[in-house]
Amino acid sequence: MRSLACFFAIAVAAVAAPASAQWRMDNSIGLPQLGSVGTSHHWDRCTHEEHVFDPAESVASCDRLLAENDSRSMSGYILWFRAMRHRDAGQHAQYESDLRSAGDIFSQDVTANPRSYDGYYNRGLVAERLENYDAALADYERAAAIESMAPAPHRGRGAILFRRGDYQGASQAFDRAARISARGYSTDPGLHADRCEVRAALRTDLERGLGFCNRAVRNSDTPSSALTSRGYYFFKQGDLERAAADFARAVEEDPYNAAALYGRGVVAARQGRSAEGEADMERAREMDRIDVEYYANAGLTP
Q1: What is the pLDDT of residues 21-61, one digit of tens each?
Q2: What is the CA radius of gyration of the chain?
Q3: Per residue in 256-273, pLDDT tens?
């Protein structure tokens, strides 16, 4: 999924921060005030989406942060990122365990403060990754009702509708998120990618859709997910050569991008390189079945 989403990071309202590479994980995370260079070093390694560190090294940094942390909510954020690093390492049982633990913490946040935007939104993210889509939608809707000027819940809702094949509903949700985001004078590149993908799925407003994808690629510090979105767009238009180029570049930028690897395999199979394509698709499903299905259900198939 977006790549995350992608999509598809966790929202902390108090502090703004840079965009994440994994769209379907959401688009931003507020960083805590870090007390030392050592803690900052471990935070960067634990939360990184650029995948410049070995997953085991990143998990060790998450472990260190959890041992040093005394905040319940921050433990939830760290567990979320440790889950993502376990996913990168192919440790699926640990991945699911950390997600469930993070979800329990965010539920405690909601219980402690029924008006907690962060609690509802973050719990929705966890529910989405655990494929509890009805629960995720309910939490996104509660978050949107609490914080009407927050684009992220609408984007999360759009991703679930896209996954379910309700592309018109997804388009409306993504466009609403973009209108809200524009009031803050900037729009996350991942949201541009979402709006590109949904137009490709709908086969409508295609020129504008490609423009959104190009903006996402151009404005991304780590463009792997944006390239995946554009590869999907080209695939839906039947342009296998350009789709292959974008998927290949996306994998080169981020070898842990399961959706891009799957897309590369689909195009290889379509071009007659069956063994190569099957190998890529099988590996991608092992890496992140949820992200792969996000695109496969939307027509990215051999």
Answers
A1: 233 333 333 333 334 445 678 888 898 766 778 899 999 99
A2: 18
A3: 999 999 999 999 999 999
pTM, to two decimals: 0.87
Tokens of 97: 């365990």
- DSSP codes of every residue in the chain: -BBBBB------TTS--PBPS-GGG-SB-PPP---SHHHHHHHHHHH-SS--S-HHHHHHHHHHHHHH---HHHHHHHHHHHHHHHHHTT-HHHHHHHHHHHHHHHHHHHHH-TT-HHHHHHHHHHHHHTT-HHHHHHHHHHHHHH-TT-SHHHHHHHHHHHHTT-HHHHHHHHHHHHHHHHTTT---HHHHHHHHHHHHHHT-SHHHHHHHHHHHHHH-SSTHHHHHHHHHHHHHTT-HHHHHHHHHHHHHH-TT-HHHHHHHHHHHHHTT-HHHHHHHHHHHHHH-HHHHHHHHTTT---
Residues paired with residue 72 on neighbouring β-strands, in sequence order:
none
